[in-house]
Amino acid sequence: MYKHSVRVTGSIVAGLQELLAPRSHVTFLDRNWIYLGSRESLEEELTRRTGIGSGYLRSPHHTASISERMSWMAGRKTTVPEDTAYCLLGLFDVNMPLLYGEGKERAFLRLQEEIMKYSDDHTLFLWKNEDQYGSGLLAHSPDCFRSTGHYRRFPDPENGRPYQMTNKGIAIDLRLLAGNPHWNTFIATLNCRDDNMESAGVYLQQKPGGLFRRFAPDIIARLEKAHQGELQSIYVKDWDGLAEFDLMQKERITGEWIDRFRGLTMYDVDGKEYPLGKEQRDYVFQLMAEDPSSRMAKQLAQRTGQPSTHGE
Length: 312
Description:
eight-stranded antiparallel beta sheet; 13 strands; alpha+beta
């Protein structure tokens, strides 16, 4: 029997591994060892506090996608930075050396590399982080999965090839859709979909020599149809020495152009008015990345007085 003293702070509850331990009776006590309840009796409260579906509290959690399990850790705090990654080892059934002093980010990257050795779940690559420009396919923190836990693994019958970490980055076969030729971007279709059967992808950018990196990491591309694009073998890796370029690029695309929308309460396209919020700004970015020369993109540019990135 687990006897675990629980202190709730925001979304922080008892250790994930203890909470999800199978074939065990988990009892919750307060700091004074006063009985609070069992995992079963507190199921609704635990689900609300942790974001973990009640089904996973009652049955094996390994059916949950990687992004969903990562999202359970989003917002949680650990006393030792590296424990953000180390406390997830049991949740993913992987092992790796505990190297205290390596730092939170490096520990979490190593965790993801270990997960890749045992799983082909593409939701590992489905994360958002507006500060992680120029990165590879791996996230820097579980917090990046906060809004992508609702995606599920959806295998591509034509792409069962393994992928791995190499000295050139992650070697992987992905389906690519052409994006913005001005920025040499693509949409990589990932083998996953959400509860509405909508598939997802991430933006990649290719540099001379063929290496790819994650582009616009704060946006997930929404795709109505799964497994789109031409299957290609690529390498995805952090690009070194491009911090200044990244800042200029980010300012040009998400700054000067899109920031003009922040001052507008409404904008019209084809005679219709739409409320402007973060979702609309994300849509504008996606529109520019996919087809900046489209009629709608030009109308939006004209509305804000910003020249189109492409000519007529």
